[in-house]
Amino acid sequence: MFGYLVKRLLQMTLVLWIVSVIVFLMMSFTGDPVFMVVPVDATDAEIAQARRLLGLDQPMPVQYWRFLVSLVQGDFGYSYVFRQPAMTLIMERLPATVEMVLVAMVFALVISIPLGVYAGANPESKISRFIMAGSLLGISLPGFWVGMVLIYLFAVQWGIFPSSGRGDTAEFFGLRISLLTGDGWHHIVLPAITLSLATTAILLRMTRAGMMEVGRQDFMKFAKAKGVSRRDVLYRHGLKNAIIPVVTIFGLQLGDLIAFATITETIFSWPGMGKLLIDSIYRADRPVIVVYLMLVALIFVVINFIVDLVYTLIDPRISLK
Amino acid sequence: MTRFFASEFFFNYTRNWSAIIGSALMFAFAFAVLVGPFLVAQNPYDIASLDLMDSYKPPMWLEGGDPRFPFGTDGQGRDVWASILYGARISLFIGLAAMCASCFIGTFLGLVAGFYGGILDSIIMRIADIQLSFPSILIALFLMSAVGTGIDKVLIALTAVGWVVYARTVRGSTLSEKQKEYVQAAKVAGLPNHKIIRKHILPNVLTPLIVIATIQVGTFVLIEASLSFLGVGVPITQPSLGLLIKNGFDVLFSGLWWTSVFPGLAIMMLVFGINLFGDFLRDELNPRLK
């Protein structure tokens, strides 16, 4: 177990290091950041001065080394646009994104698991076919377009939900969280539904496939034969065994939700880090993009690690190597 | 041809409604893309054919609609229906071209990794592993932010994202094919490695790729639409369906819904059709289910 943890930690560090190399290389290809910091009418001498201050006059390996050292020290530099530490900017917006992703995940689970169990247990029924067609449609829809249609119907036409923003937030251990206020919930419903759509469809299909696989097993027949109620057969015997592949996908989906949050946040003007990323891409605000990518890479690596650990908890047959 | 119509594949196809609907949607789309632009009077790229007097006309069944513009017009008096037909060309072209490129590169790398093994295999597969732990949309978004907009750049970004699935699948099948007797026999017969790979292994690892490739076209169309919606995809001069939706989104709050809703429906039809048909293919081509 200990050996496994050490190995995994080394692997995770390696992945993050490779990501840092790629991020650095890509960033070096995209134009000259010097023009983001000097005024438009700067003289050549001023530009050269700024270049020296940013360390851009050094050879690439030296630049990368400095980049890496400051990454490790948690110093990501100042945003060219906001003139604030890029790290602070991202961290301010992280709770908004996490909040939306979590609510979307809860929506997806609450809808997909029962429907998936039903469709898996009654594969021939009309309702199941309807559910499956709906889930295929859910995968085929562009998420941002659904968000737009929701905005048009619920905000512009009927005025039931607000079209943008995060609403009131409340302070909780120094974090600004909107889930603690009614207004916050009012604002989060539409973006969370938009974001959850594809995940709902995918989890539903995985659950159904798992249930159909499990349904053929002897222990299901046995449970039925010994008089366990249908509900318990499905959920306590069936789902428990069908859920293992769903857990893997769940982890991947969490990553996808964070990625797609950039689009959802852009549509709903949600002040999260995804919208900040898109804005920073428009403005070529390099330090912010770097923080975002490194942070998201860290999150993904940790999620994958947790998924592997959860595996062994659900299924004792799998052992860590 | 008669052999095809007598095959089990075709028989199952005629019994499967979702496969028929899926392929009908795909064919309708292909037809619209190939012939459509010749059927509409207006070329949305040709500024001379636009008339500002026609701007923001609603769809023809609504009050104030004009039968010349069945799905309404946008702010420049551009026919939404014509824009969709032209935009679908770009979307579908990107999806297909990026799929072909990914399939080619991924299959090549997978064959090499699986056949030769060793350090080459490790390097290719580690890259694939790392890439798979990140959502493709994020990788594509990041690449696009680095290289700028343009159809060619979208193709590069999508290919960089898409090769991984082929490489992994092909590597897996190559590993198992390599052990089989016919490959051993070819080796003993003294065939050079590249010939064994091309003539003997390649034809036997292609089947699972058909499903992947089909579904991937749909995925690519969606990713391209998302990138263009975010403004880092195709340029304004070559609007794909995604860019049309973005342009429509800017006027959505004025109640002008038709400029964005119809392009979205077009994407949905295409990708839904591809997914329906892809599902059928997967069931048909998977020998384990038979």
From TrEMBL, chain A:
Instruction: Enumerate the subcellular locations listed in this protein's record, separating them with semicolons.
Output: Cell membrane
Which terms in the GO cellular component ontology are assigned? plasma membrane
Where in the numbering of this chain does the ABC transmembrane type-1 domain appear? 94-311
- Annotated GO biological process: transmembrane transport
Would you indicate the residue range of the signal peptide?
A: none
Please indicate which superkingdom the organism of origin belongs to.
Answer: Bacteria
Keywords per UniProt:
Cell membrane, Membrane, Transmembrane, Transmembrane helix, Transport
Q: Membrane topology type, per the record?
A: Multi-pass membrane protein
- Name the residues that span the membrane: 12-31, 100-118, 130-155, 184-204, 242-268, 288-314
Belongs to which family?
Belongs to the binding-protein-dependent transport system permease family.
The name this protein goes by in its record: Peptide/nickel transport system permease protein
- What is the organism of origin for this protein? Maritalea mobilis
From TrEMBL, chain B:
Its localization reads: Cell membrane
> To which protein family does this belong?
Belongs to the binding-protein-dependent transport system permease family.
The record's Gene Ontology cellular component field reads: plasma membrane
Domain ABC transmembrane type-1 residue range list:
88-278
Its protein name is Peptide/nickel transport system permease protein
Q: Which GO terms describe its biological process?
A: transmembrane transport
Report the Gene3D superfamilies cross-referenced here: MetI-like (1.10.3720.10)
Membrane topology summary = Multi-pass membrane protein
- Which keywords describe this protein according to UniProt? Cell membrane, Membrane, Transmembrane, Transmembrane helix, Transport
Q: Where are the transmembrane segments?
A: 20-40, 92-117, 137-166, 205-236, 256-281
* One Pfam family matching this protein: BPD_transp_1
InterPro entries attached to this UniProt entry: BP-dependent_transpt_permease (IPR050366), MetI-like (IPR000515), MetI-like_sf (IPR035906)
Is Transmembrane helix found in the keyword set?
yes
The family database entries (CDD domains) matched by this protein are listed as: TM_PBP2
Major place of residence: membrane
